[in-house]
Design brief:
This protein has 227 residues and is an alpha+beta fold. It has 2 domains: 3-178, Sandwich (Jelly Rolls); 183-224, DNA Excision Repair, Uvrb, Chain A. 34% of the residues lie in helices and 31% in strands. Strand 7 and strand 8 form a beta hairpin. Helix 1 runs antiparallel to helix 3 and helix 5 runs antiparallel to helix 6. It starts with a strand and ends with a helix.
């Protein structure tokens, strides 16, 4: 399931985050690359475990927790500490697939990467190119969202970032281990959750149909969740 999640950060939140990361220490983006990705990746990354990275990552995590659409779509069990990258001057990231297991360097923290996420921090008019291109069974999806909006997609997908030919593309990226490993099961739960919410608005939260459908949702989650 590929889903765009609007307004994870408002304009003030984006400005605050950019003020932190723009002033931080930037290094070669291959510091977090696997062997395959290192061959295709040309960008810069905010140095991990620096005050700027920790502060900015904390702001993103707080924003995610306050975004119901993210919680409903991802059903997060663990979130990898957010990272930040930037592309300029023709930099790009060729076609690749994310590692199945991500480990935070120097710690025992690790997650199974069920979902990948990109939170855009540059307005689209600030740069040319830089589309996130994601392949699935239906072909290619090209994603270039407003600052503060995020895309969530299966980490198993082949994807790339097109060369940035003008300006600078700044983004936050991270991975999610979901309580529900299977993408198809997550999609069913997400669709059911949205349907329950729509019926609740139309008929009231205490309507018997809403209560029964809510029970179905939780019983499916109970059956499929690893948590």
């Amino acid at each position: 399931m590929l889903i765009a999640i609007p307004d994870v950060l408002d304009a003030a939140g984006v400005a605050r985050l950019r003020s932190i990361v723009d002033a931080g220490e930037w290094v070669d983006g291959n510091v977090t690359s696997g062997a395959q990705s290192a061959l295709a990746k040309r960008n810069e990354q905010l140095a991990e475990d620096t005050p700027a990275a920790r502060e900015a990552g904390g702001l993103v995590l707080d924003a995610l927790g306050a975004t119901p659409l993210f919680v409903a779509a991802a059903l997060p069990l663990k979130v990898f500490p957010p990272l930040f990258n930037r592309y300029a001057g023709g930099q790009a990231f060729g076609m690749h697939v994310d590692n199945a297991v991500r480990t935070r360097r120097g710690t025992d923290f690790r997650i199974r990467s069920d979902l990948s996420a990109t939170l855009f921090l540059s307005p689209p008019d600030d740069y040319d190119g830089g589309d996130l291109v994601i392949e699935d069974q239906f072909g290619e999806s090209r994603v270039k969202l407003p600052a503060g909006h995020m895309v969530l997609y299966p980490a198993s997908s082949l994807h790339r970032v097109e060369p940035v030919t003008r300006g600078t593309r700044v983004a936050c990226f991270f991975w999610v281990q979901s309580m529900v490993r299977d993408d198809g099961a997550r999609r069913i739960l997400f669709d059911l959750d949205r349907g329950v919410q729509e019926v609740a608005v139309a008929q009231g939260q205490g309507d018997p149909a809403v209560v029964r459908l809510t029970g179905v949702y939780h019983n499916l989650l109970r059956r499929w969740a690893d948590a």
